[in-house]
TrEMBL record:
It comes from the Eukaryota. GO terms for cellular component: nucleus; perinuclear region of cytoplasm; plasma membrane; ubiquitin ligase complex. Transmembrane segments: none annotated. GO terms for biological process: positive regulation of protein neddylation; protein neddylation. One of its GO terms (molecular function) is ubiquitin conjugating enzyme binding. Residues 1-43, 283-314 are annotated as: Disordered. Signal peptide: none annotated. This is DCN1-like protein.
């Protein structure tokens, strides 16, 4: 994120920096970070406590013969909340990790901090895993994590370090393949793409195209590229994508076959879909006619070549 799942200057990527018109909130997506595995070091967020302290930070005490001695579970006061709540993470560590990337003047991780955060996670700010992380954190604004979003998000995935977050990516990728979870991610993506500060209610067309490519990273519908080509050529003059159109497109990919033969204008599809189907059917018809007209000439050339070859042989 940094220049991440965000308001951006280059709509060919879904992640970028803040920018755009007030309405419909022109955004674009730009900036690439590192890809690959996970870093070994989480950065300066961990400290060790003296070994003679109990989990709650107090010194060991004498016990009477009648009182059973309970072994110390942790010598690290940063794990105090871990022991108390029997969880797999420490709230203190999460807060420290957040503070490592937060803005100097705002209690939030903003563009510069997001970029460092993604680099330290070894993820490309423009990739699907960053969108998944924003989804799990329920981030309200692109290129920004508030303290609450970051802490609650890390609690949700049970991670309190860079290594911990990295290790959760495979589970998040698998989770997003479940139909109900993907539907939730898909609907989140629309809201995430809006410029909440500007009060946007629809996605700019170029932002929607980039986000459609991103959210369908793992399971790309057969009709997606045709749909995006239609929006790119924009014969209908569409400038923004409404929430209803965004949500209904997921239903469209699940119900309508790639040949579009079972599409009916009598059903309650958005009018933009009617225009798309007409445009795509006509495009395929022209493509087929062009292919058929080129085929005879190709066959004639091949036949003529064979004849000449035969004459030469005689």
């Amino acid at each position: 994120m940094g220049q991440c799942v965000t308001k951006c200057k280059n709509p060919s990527s879904s992640l970028g920096s803040k920018s755009g018109d007030k309405d419909p909130g022109s955004k674009s997506h730009h900036k690439k970070g590192g890809g690959g595995g996970c870093k070994e070091e989480p950065g300066p967020v961990c400290r060790k406590a003296p070994g003679d302290l109990l989990a709650n930070g107090t010194k060991t005490m004498e016990v009477t013969a009648e009182t059973p001695v309970i072994p110390t579970l942790s010598a690290d006061p940063l794990k105090e909340d871990l022991v108390a709540n029997s969880e797999e993470f420490s709230i203190v560590r999460i807060e420290e990790l957040f503070d490592h990337y937060k803005d100097e003047h705002d209690d939030a991780i903003l563009e510069e901090g997001m970029e460092r955060f993604c680099n330290d996670l070894c993820v490309d700010p423009a990739e699907f895993r960053v969108l998944l992380l924003a989804w799990k954190f329920q981030a309200a604004t692109m290129c920004k994590f508030t303290r609450k979003e970051f802490v609650e998000g890390c609690k949700a995935i049970k991670a309190d370090s860079l290594e911990g977050i990295c290790s959760r990516f495979p589970c998040m990728l698998l989770e997003a393949q479940a139909e109900d979870k993907f539907k939730d991610l898909y609907r989140f993506t629309f809201q995430f793409g809006l410029d909440s500060e500007e009060g946007q209610r629809s996605l700019h067309r170029d932002i929607a195209i980039a986000l459609w490519r991103l959210v369908f990273t793992q399971d790309t519908p057969a009709i997606l590229e045709c749909w995006l080509d239609f929006l790119t050529e924009n014969p209908s003059g569409v400038k923004g994508i409404s929430r209803d159109t965004w949500n209904m497109f997921l239903n469209f990919t699940q119900v309508i076959g790639p040949d579009l033969s079972n599409y009916s204008e009598d059903e309650a599809w958005p009018s933009l879909f009617d225009t798309f189907v007409e445009w795509e059917v006509e495009r395929r018809k022209k493509e087929e006619e062009r292919r058929c007209t080129q085929l005879p000439s190709a066959e004639t050339e091949e036949s003529g070549g064979s004849h000449q070859k035969g004459v030469a042989t005689d």
